[in-house]
Structure formats: structure tokens, C-alpha cells
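Hi C.,

You asked whether I'd gotten around to modeling the 238-residue construct. I have! Everything is below, sequence then structure, no commentary in between.
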Amino acid sequence: MNKEYLNKYEELVSDKDNDFSKIMNFIKELQTNVTEEKISFYFSLLKDERNVHLFLTLRAFFDKYGKRGESFLLNYLSKNDASDTKLISEAIMILSGHNYQCESVLPYIYKYITSSDEELRYKSIIALGWIGKEDDFTLLVDSVKNETSLSNKGYALSAMRQMFFRLPQLKNNILYVYSHEIESTDNEDIIFIIGLCIQDLLRKKLYITEDERGIHSKDSSEIVKNKVMKILSKENQN
């Protein structure tokens, strides 16, 4: 079976037009008359990002396997160590995503958020923002303080915003972290990330936007930093 589907998959990888109907037909085949073998094969494809559009579509539709898919991923995590970091990180992302919101993945997030693998830490940070509990906030604080990857530090700051949407009682704790970080950095990316988060938490207009290409600001990072520091100073006085 895998050879037949692998040939179809390779055709999709090579399709420069990324024909969505062909991709969906392929997914439908793998999600009809579901077997453990089909789920395992589908999941194994998430190791390959040669065609990013195809990869993202496959990952987005894995949760259509429902409870069987959830059980498969949890079983995979329980039986595999960090030797295959790519698939472990994808399992964490899928299980913590919108349609699963699976709290059973939290122990694995706790385990891998300090992994030596940068991508595994990244996916664990994002997942913690989606489904972490109030007590888990300190793990994001630790990531902000100790993360060796600047991009992952930014993801940890953003993950705090995601936590706020679910746990607004963390607002003051989050603002404390943002205040400390904005004062101690001159990094443009970190400044814009904090500015973007402040817009959402405090409903302030800083004219910072975000799209698939990244974060964009009307003002320079220096101006944004000064604005954010003033906003946070006033907030602390209230």
C-alpha cells in the first residue's frame, strides 16, 4: 500500500501548481477506510518539507482522523524518544492545536521545552501557549530568560499573549515580563513582538501588523520601544 501512495505523494511534491483538489483527493484516500497503517504512513509524510504548501496542508488535516489520530500520536510520543525530533515536534503541534486541544500532550511539552533541539523547543513553546495551564506560565518565563535562540525567545513572548487569551488573570504577570524585556533589549524583532502583544493585551494602537511574511511596523523599533515603555509605565501606576 505504501508504495502506491508514496508514488502519488511524490507526484504532489513535484507539482509546482500545488493543485489543492489533487492534494485533497490524496488526503481523502488516506482517510477513507482508515487503518493504523494509513495513519502511520500519513504521519510519516510530515517529516518532509520539500513542498511547504503540501506539508502544511497535510498537517492541517491530520486531525480529521479524530480520536484514532489522537490515540496514534499519543502512542507515538510514549514509545519514541527525542531521536526523531521532527515527528515528535509535529505530534506535539497537532495534539495541542485547535481541534484536539489535548491536555495529555502536556507532559511531553514539559519534557521537550528544554530540549537541545531548537525546533522541538519552538514547537513546545507554541503548544504551551495554546494549551498550557496557569502554573505553566513560569515555563514560558524560563524560555524568555534562558532561550539561546532569539527567534524562540520571540515565540515565548508571543506564547504569553496566547495564554492571556485563555487566562486573562495572567495579564499583570505578562506585562511584568514585557516591561523587563523591552527595557533591556535593542533587538528590532523582540521590540516589535512585544509591541504587537501590547496592542492585543491593552488595546493600544501602535500600528504594528502581522501576516505570513512577518511583523511590520509603521514606526522604527526605537520609536516603538519608547511608546511601549511609556504605556507600561502608565499601566504600572494604575
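If it helps when you're writing up: The chain has 13 helices and two strands.

Thanks,
B.
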